[in-house]
Amino acid sequence: MSYPGINRFALLLLVVATPALGQNSQDDEPAAPLEQTVPVAEPDGPATDAPPPLTEQQILDEFDVFQRALSDKNYDEADVSAKRVVEMAIKFYGPQTHETAKALNNLAIVQHQNQQYDAAIQNFSGAIEILEALEDRLNEDLVNPLKGLGAAQLSQGRPDLASRSFQRATHITHVNEGPHNIEQVEILESLAEATVRMGELEEARDVLDRIHMLNVRHFKGDALGLLPSLMRRGEWQHRAGYYNDERATYRRAIRIIEAAAGKNDPRLVTPLLKLGESYYFYDTYSDSPGVVSAATGESHFKRAVRIAEGADDMPWLELANTRLALADYYAYTEAHNRARKIYLQVWNSLSADEDRIEMRRELLEGPIALRTGPLPTYAGGPDSAAGDPSGFLTGTIRVDYTVSTRGRVRNIRTQANPQEFTDMQRMVHREVRRRMHRPLLVNGVPVDSENQVFVHEFYYRQEQLDELKKRKALAEKSGRK
Questions:
Q1: What angle (nearest 5°) sits at the alpha carbon of residue 295, between those of residues 292 and 301?
Q2: What is the rounded distance in angstroms from the CA atom of residue 217 to the CA atom of residue 180?
Q3: Cα angle vertex 384, ends 378, 386, to 5°?
Q4: Domain 1-39+52-190: which topology?
């Protein structure tokens, strides 16, 4: 079967998968996707001024508009343009064609960026169905829409469904590119994110090990080439809570740089900082952020500062962030005089010109959390994620608090909506209370930062809420007796 103009149009269509994004948020109701039907010709009748026939060049011109809007992150305009491309592709090529599948995929990408997750899922799924009908269920063209589908499901709060999409995409790459193909790493990283969100940490660890083995195989004989994958591995190990493994990864990165470029190479700064920050989480069960184990990250922070200050071409922003990391460590360990001295030094260095003042506002003129722990996504735990995806409702825990001059959380107040989810409220309350912050600075001096608000969204089912109301009513009835 042939498709008119497929070479020019299909090659120009953007086919990329949206990255797996982080937190879910409340959105306006997503716009409904376009009707995927072929326009029906009007019956014969009196002659009218019919519009000129659609040309492939018109589609390509509209696609250029879409690409420019997407590149400029003007997602509203990109959404409108993507819908026009879908409509034109259906009319010119037909509803069951590669071009229409790719146009639907592009529309879904924009809808995902606009947090219209339901519409994105519908259009990613539509692209997948078309490709399955045209080819088969193992065709490599399915990988990108499957990645996009998984990302939208993850953003919608369904890591269980996202995991299935990512696993299928991975399997297709195995069939077409072999089990050791490096292209699957991005998909596996998204799969690791899904498993972490489901609380399946051992499975996440297995996925991370697979990613590492693929990278080691791919960069065999190129130790420095392995560095980006090692840094990503450390970040994922941190996400999963494997802090000892995380430290081993960063130490390996440090050894590679030292062997290749010496012990004062500026590339050492980032892994040294990451290694030092990992010690904030040395005792994950401690309820007091000021209590630090005998093993600390101070030496790593101080070495990073020495290297950054000694480098001839260290960018000013990287130098400022390196110094701030040491100041944050001192604040964390209650060495407040040392912390304030460095905070003032950085404040002054970021007051030299307008560009630096802009970064000063971002880095110092508001409290920044240094240590945060995971929060549950589902009432009742990760197992509650299974089942009908349409059966979830969204609840919120609102936390109002003050950050003191020492970066501690004070005057904390929490409120649950629905108010029956008191267990979720207690978990969020405890996590926020334990957090340590870089304090707000005014003229380089730490001050209290009042009226801070943190909102945590979670998912629950109506039957869970009904059960909690029933228990509450029974408790009140027993209390009256």
A1: 90
A2: 8
A3: 120
A4: 1.25.40
Contact indicator for 455, 425 with CB cutoff of 8 Å: no
Residue-wise pLDDT for 253-262, tens only, equals 999 999 999 9
Q: What is the mean pLDDT of residues 20-30?
A: 39
d(CA 233, CA 252): 11
Structure tokens at 297: 């990250």
- H or E, element range at 371: strand 368-371
| CB-CB contact of 377 with 157 (8 Å) | yes
Higher-scoring residue by pLDDT: 24, 335:
335
DSSP assignment of 151-177 = HHHHHTT-HHHHHHHHHHHHHHHHHHH
Q: Indicate the DSSP class of residue 192.
A: H
Strand (E) or helix (H) holding 462: helix 462-480
Per CATH, the number for 390-480 is 3.30.1150.10
- Would 244-365 and 390-480 be classified into the same CATH topology? no
Contact yes or no for 30/119 (Cβ under 8 A):
yes
Per the structure block, which two tokens stand in for 365?
């003129």
Distance CA(354)–CA(366), nearest Å, equals 18
- What pLDDT, on the 0 to 100 scale, is given for residue 36? 38
Q: Which residues, at least 6 apart from 424, have a Cβ–Cβ distance to it below 8 Å?
A: 376, 379, 395, 397, 416, 458
Q: Which of the residue ranges 48-62, 100-114, 206-220, 316-330 would you say has the lowest mean pLDDT? A: 48-62
Tokens encoding 304 = 């990073």
Residue 293 has pLDDT above 50, yes or no: no
Query: Which one, of 437, 444, 417, 443, lies nearest residue 428 by Cα?
Result: 417
**What are the b/e assignments for 81-117, b being 16+ CB within 10 Å?**
bbbbbbbbbbebbebebbbbbbbbbbbbbbbbbbbbb
Q: DSSP assignment, residue 444?
A: T
Count CA atoms closer than 13 A to 284's CA, side-chain side.
11
Domain boundaries, the chain: 1-39+52-190, 244-365, 390-480
> What's the gap between Cα 298 and its chain centre?
29
What 72-75 contacts at long range (C-beta under 8 Å, 24+ apart), as own/partner pairs, is: 75/110, 75/113, 75/114
Record the tokens describing residue 438, joined without a space. 């870089």
Helix (H, G, I), strand (E, B) or coil at 261: helix
Is a pLDDT exceeding 70 seen at residue 43? no
pLDDT of residue 240: 80
Place of tokens 């600390």: 296
Class of the CATH-defined domain 244-365: mainly alpha
Q: Are strands 368-371 and 445-447 parallel, antiparallel or unpaired?
A: unpaired
Most confident of 51-65, 276-290, 422-436: 422-436
pLDDT in tens, 334-350: 999 999 999 999 999 99
